[in-house]
Amino acid sequence: EVQLVESGGGLVQPGGSLKLSCAASGFTFSGSAMHWVRQASGKGLEWVGRIRSKANSYATAYAASVKGRFTISRDDSKNTAYLQMNSLKTEDTAVYYCTTTVQISGMDVWGQGTTVTVSS
Amino acid sequence: SYELTQPPSVSVSPGQTARITCSGDALPKQYAYWYQQKPGQAPVLVIYKDSERPSGIPERFSGSSSGTTVTLTISGVQAEDEADYYCQSADSSGTYEVFGTGTKVTVL
User: A112, A86 in Cβ contact below 8 A?
Assistant: First the structure.
């Protein structure tokens, strides 16, 4: 079964750090680009960033709202992608999803999401 | 930064047709994708590459493209189609992904 499982969410103070994980199974993780998408309560989807495969030089790209504060990485030996979040702001409070392309095109597989709350 | 614009809401009676538009300057160059999201759930891909339908998605969902606008059409809307719908595409360079502002479809 194709699956993505996020973990690592929680409550953190403004200015703090948190690292999310996305464990993949059921597909060839090493060949897939991995994206992070977030959604604040009652708001729309926001693309956070992505990391491409080794064949594409592990290239990363980030939304302007998180560039310089967030870092996406991956460990193909563990079939896991990560989102390191530093200098967190209250506006980073959201459900964070990891997502990828497995069978066709577009983001066709999504995790269940993990909640990050930035508050003092 | 690049933006994709959708109407905030669309209301439709059961059995009628709902059309949701998404406008963006790079859409003539980049494919568009559509996602359905129900409360408390992760998004589900319903259209890829402007007009292709993934397996398992009902035939009443279709997509089209014309210039800087793409359209998701739901023909013969059913109560279960009530959800938020988001378009998604990339900027002209293909580097940055972006989601549309989202459209809430209400089945009357």
Answer: no
- Residue A105, phi then psi, degrees to nearest 5: -155, 150
What pLDDT shows up at residue A4? 98
At residue A105, does pLDDT exceed 90?
no
Residues of chain B with C-beta less than 8 angstroms from the C-beta of A50? 97
Query: DSSP letter at B50?
Result: T
Query: From the CA of B102, how many Å to the nearest CA of chain A?
Result: 6
pLDDT in tens, A45-84: 999 999 999 999 999 999 999 999 999 999 999 999 999 9
- A72 near A7, Cβ under 8 Å? no
Which residue does chain B place closest to A113, by CA atoms?
A: B42
Closest-CA residue of B relative to A35 is B97
